[in-house]
Amino acid sequence: MFTSSHFVRAKGSYCGSAVMIGFILSTVRGVSGNSRCAAGTCRSVLAERTVEGGPSWVLSSEYPSLESVELRSDLDRVRDLVKELARVENGISGYLDNCEQLSVSECQDNGVLDALTLSSKLKSEAEILLRNVGVFSSCEKSVDGSNTDARKKSLEVQEVAARLGEVTLSKDLFLMRCTDDLVSEFLSANNETKAEAAHIRRQRKLRDSRLSLQEEKLATSLSVNGHSSWGTMYSTISGTIQCDITLADGSKERVGLATAAGYLDNPSEAVRRSAFEGIRDSWAVHEESCAAALNSMVGWRLDMYKRRGLHFLDTPLHQNRMTRKTLDTMLRVVEDRSELARRVLRTKAKLLGKEKLDAWDLFAPVPAELAESQEIDGRYTFEEAVQLIKESVGSIDPEMGDFVQLMADKGWIEARKASQKVPGAYQTEFSKSRTPRVYLSDYNGGAGHVLTLAHELGHAFHSWTMRELALPETYLGMNVAETASIFFETVVSGALLERTTNELERLRILWAACENASAFLLNIPARFRFEEQLHIQREKQSLTPSELSSLMEQAWTNQYQDSLATVQPFFWQSKLHFYITGVCFYNFPYTFGWLLALGVYNQRDRLGDKFFDAYKALLRDTGKLDTEELVLAHLNEDIGEDAFWNKSLDSVERIVTEFETQASMLKPIPGQVYDA
Fold first, then answer.
1. Percentage helix, strand, coil, to 5, in the chain?
2. Rounded to whole angstroms, how far apart are CA atoms 63 and 248?
3. Share of the chain above pLDDT 90, in %
4. In angstroms, how far is CA 510 from the centroid of its own chain?
5. The pLDDT of residue 13
6. Nearest-5° angle of CA 248, CA 41, CA 463?
7. Is residue 253 helix, strand or coil?
8. Considering only CA atoms, which of 555, 9, 537, 6 is closest in space to residue 295?
9. 333, 642 contact by CB (below 8 A)
């Protein structure tokens, strides 16, 4: 399910000067943060049995350890490749100034074509090795946020990535500016160059916004200890924060963010509120540091956009391979129909015995008193969850079910309970073996966690279907990266509903499924509008912590309106997405991806037996086609028009209506049940 991630990066951004850093760190897809998929130590009284934790993943197939000879050898090889690329670059950079006038025959005679081809080969090898090390380091940091060795290794990867970006800039700029005939000749050289076709086509759209070679190199070099370092500082702060929490029995705990976030879906409102306030108070200590980071990051971007002649939305739109018209259309339709999500929150408030929900209730489970009165067992062991997901997606096609079993059998899933784990859930893949991994900071057996596991396994299946493609053909815009994950989640949610005849169990499943509506139709638009205003205001001046809080409070109020009694002004601090230096506006692609995935799911009846082959073809093309082209080619839909988005939201409305109907069959908890 949706939340946020400390590690998510959009695939193949290649937009802006720190391009290579962004690529090497574009290692994971997924979600994490303050939500049920970041449960930490969630303790539920909904079930008689306790289900805590899951398996540990196997990383040793890639490297024995961070200090292993094998890992060091790969890094050393990348450094050697960087040196060789620097020599090759000399055969390209001298022709940059007049590359628009050079013919194919001239570039054959002067050796430029050979240099471009060799650069492509060397860069491909370097990216695979460096990305592999980067993924391994991120995985190690995830299971232990205090692991200084992993943090150091990640910084080392960033530094090498920056240098790799510098020595391949000449090639990138040359292919961006040269004639179409010359690009065609380069692409036809071999399979490695051919694989760059989609990427080069997209980059050529940016030819007028590129700086000189010297300026691009300088920006890339300075970003490591400048722009990117602010994100590193934020990650260090978030990995060391401790929160004071009061538990239901009155005892107190001092815990990390992952554990504190886990209490946000606790059945006791007192515990949820204590966790919320503990997280808020812990971040308050760092508000000046966070404000400095955010002002500096956005200021850096705005300065670069000004030099490039870009609007601040041009880069995220390019990263997601979509037009401004499509974004505006989607946001307008979503905001027009956002009352759907407010209906969900009002229904939950009634069942919780409250007039309105508070911000700490957004991930509250079905009231414990209702569950106890029905005596249901609402938990799944990890093995049961895997079996359920396997059977559910296997009903679409056995290949998907077999893949789920493969993930479990190979030890490619991490779901242990541990206090030092970084909160969240994500999927990543190793570029050498082309094998995926799935990370959950915890697994507690609830329906929400089952759906989170399904979501990340969907990401993994997407990766698996592309494993035979060349790496450049797998670079995804974040907006289409959610296609398979939400498809898996939707199928499993339907299977959960079909399996139960118990009214409360059905409500509990719908309760979890409807969290998507409030997340994607309210929370994501609030993030987008906040970040939009942040960029507008930052063009004028730096913002103080109180001004940032006011912007966030206004964004939440505009979206949630009267469905919440309290909002979350400190969200600009606690939400990691705002501090990812390689990606900006890391918000609207989630809503886009959710509605796109529902649109894909809705094609099942129309396509019948042909659906699975068409579905796999769409997944394989996500790295090759622009978004509008992708949807038109495989769904025959125009996403620049309202109709596509409304059809997806119609299916959301059916779920919301079913949730309201199911809730109306149950007697609400009278009065204020929980001490707050």
1. 65, 5, 30
2. 43
3. 68
4. 24
5. 31
6. 150
7. strand
8. 537
9. yes
> Contact, 366 vs 46, CB < 8 A?
yes
Q: Tell me the three state secondary structure of residue 255.
A: strand
CA 635 – CA 618 distance, rounded (Å) = 9
> Mapping DSSP to helix (H, G, I), strand (E, B) and coil, where does residue 254 land?
strand
Residues of the chain with pLDDT under 70: 1-53, 370-378, 667-676
According to DSSP, the residues that pair with 29 across neighbouring strands are 427
Contact partners, residue 77, CB within 8 Å, separation at least 6: 125, 129
Give the C-alpha separation, 272 to 169, whole Å.
50
- Which residues, 6+ apart, have CB-to-CB distance to 59 below 8 Å? 136, 139, 140, 437
Q: What is the pLDDT of residue 371?
A: 57
Say which amino acid occupies 138. Answer: S
Q: Rg of the chain over CA atoms, in angstroms?
A: 24
Q: According to the model, what pLDDT value does residue 318 have? A: 92
Beta strands in 431-581 (DSSP E): 435-440
Please tell me the predicted confidence (pLDDT) of residue 38.
29
User: What pLDDT does 34 receive?
Assistant: 32
Residue 183 CB-density burial (10 A; 0-12 exposed, 13-18 middle, 19+ buried): buried
Instruction: Please report the pLDDT score of residue 667 as a whole number.
Output: 65
Per-residue model confidence (pLDDT) at position 435: 97
Please state, in angstroms and rounded to a whole number, the distance separating the CA atoms of residues 20 and 334: 34
Cβ burial, residue 391 (10 Å; 0-12/13-18/19+): middle
Concatenating the DSSP letter of every residue in 56-121 gives PP--TTT-S-TT-HHHHHHHHHHHHHHHHHHHHHHHHHTTSTTTTT--HHHHHHTTHHHHHHHHHH
Q: Provide the β-strand partners of residue 429.
A: 436
- Burial-class residue 362 by CB neighbours within 10 Å (0-12, 13-18, 19+): buried
Q: What is the DSSP letter of 357?
A: B
- Of the CA atoms within 13 Å of residue 666, those in its CB half-sphere come to 28
Q: Which amino acid is at 440?
A: L
- Give the Cα separation of 656 and 518 in Å (integer): 11
pLDDT in tens, 514-557: 988 999 999 999 999 999 999 999 999 999 999 999 999 999 99
